[in-house]
Amino acid sequence: MHTEHDLTDAQQKAFEQNRADFAELKKQMRGFAETANSRLDASDLRRDLKPHRCLLCSCSEFRGTPGDSCTCGHEMTSHDGYY
To answer: Which of 34, 46, 59, 76 could cross-link with 72 by S-S, CB 3.0 to 4.6 Å?
Structure first.
């Protein structure tokens, strides 16, 4: 297994770019979730503040394991707080 010291400059740069892209994706996901929550609040569908509720259906919390779908059929990242 390579350590950070064993990587070439090109490999280190690739990891740096990947980290930057994933940080941007995480920021965008938070923004999407905030917008989704605002839409649900505006439609008078104020659900309890229970974490991990689905933003795509009325599922009240994520039931599954990471990488799997919830019992509602949506992925973990579709549930509030998993981004």
So the answer is: 59
